[in-house]
Amino acid sequence: MTLGGVLTMSPNEMLVVLPIGFAVIAILLGASAFMSGSELGFFSLSPQQLLRCRSSSSKAERSIAALLDNPNRLLATILIMNNLVNVSIATLSNYLMLGVIDESQGQGLEVFILTMSVTALIVFFGEVMPKVAAGQNPFGVAKFAAGPMNFLSAMLFPFSWVLMQMGILVEKLIKKKGYNVSVDELQEALEMTTNSDETTYEEKEILKGIVNFGTISAKQIMRSRVDINAFDVQIKFLELLASINKSGYSRVPIYRDSLDKIEGILYIKEVLPYLDEADDFEWQKLIRKDVYFIPENKKIDDLMRDFQRKRVHMAVVADEYGGTSGLITLEDIIEEIIGDINDEFDSKDLEFDRVDNFNYTFEGRTSIYDFCRILNIDVSYFQEIKGDSESLGGLLLELFGKLPRVGEKKRFRNFVFSVVAMDKKRIKTVKITLKEAKTDKETDV
Fold it and tell me: 352-434 has which CATH code?
């Protein structure tokens, strides 16, 4: 055989080389089909099947779980082998063609025909057919391929590692050049898409809640320290039962001496079997010690994921000194999207009363965030005067600079705040009046 002559193979050489070449191409097509079918088989497994593999006594099924523990490495191995096989098919086909075609007559048409033929073979036998077949029984295919894939994954690890690092680099470059959409831009897009009679007010509020979800901190929606319903760890059992009956909550924090020393969470359902016990019953053994503490600035989208991962429904919000600042529950987070959720234990009295278009009455414990949302104003409206306060009562303390008396008024911009009711050292009820101009009896901030 010579590449410099008119024909590169003699007739006798063709009788030997061509059958071997076609046999090798057939084997390579089988390898390509195996890789393509394996890819679909592994990445089509359901979570239930994968869970079964993790706890299975079968070596092949445990191998499936081990391979899918690092899916990027498995995918890189499959891609490397598939491309290697396909390139080998194309190279070998070209070599065989050069051995039988007369170079003096040109090779343009022959190369085109060969390219189309090899492409059709690879696509049909190496991609379409194996994936259709594997789709009928992906678990069986994955189980069959687990052993060879374990071997290939180990053998090709240096190459797959390089490929994975290149993928990570490309991902970082794309992220850097990506377009970051701000919350304000999302709000504008929301206003444009919901500005129709087909979208109800409730639907708009839910969409707004979704847009703002990642910007809200735990401190903005938590129940403040003064409103936390918690029990002292040293109270007697009968007193505990009376307190539980009065509170109506299914989970209650337990503290020692003060709320800054939370010892655990008491689940009321775990108390029910002991209702007939005497007053000296040691109910403290029912307390769950795994309290979840979070900082005030934790975003509620991250907190939601933590609740899901830890399987808890309540978190204690700690301030910068480690003291208890407030309490937040899963229900509080969900209400930020879909609105208030009232059950049979919730008070039916609203936290605010709309007297007319210019006068409202709010409870002092109402958060500034909820107050702004109800009146449809930006949450940063009171940023310059609210200090560390998160409730309406705290805002008034900042405005007055002292504990006000009932009937005292203070104006800030277009709002006139007046104290309606006090409870010991707390502002219980506040009246808000929307004004365009000052009155003589009102004091500016």
Answer: 3.30.465.10
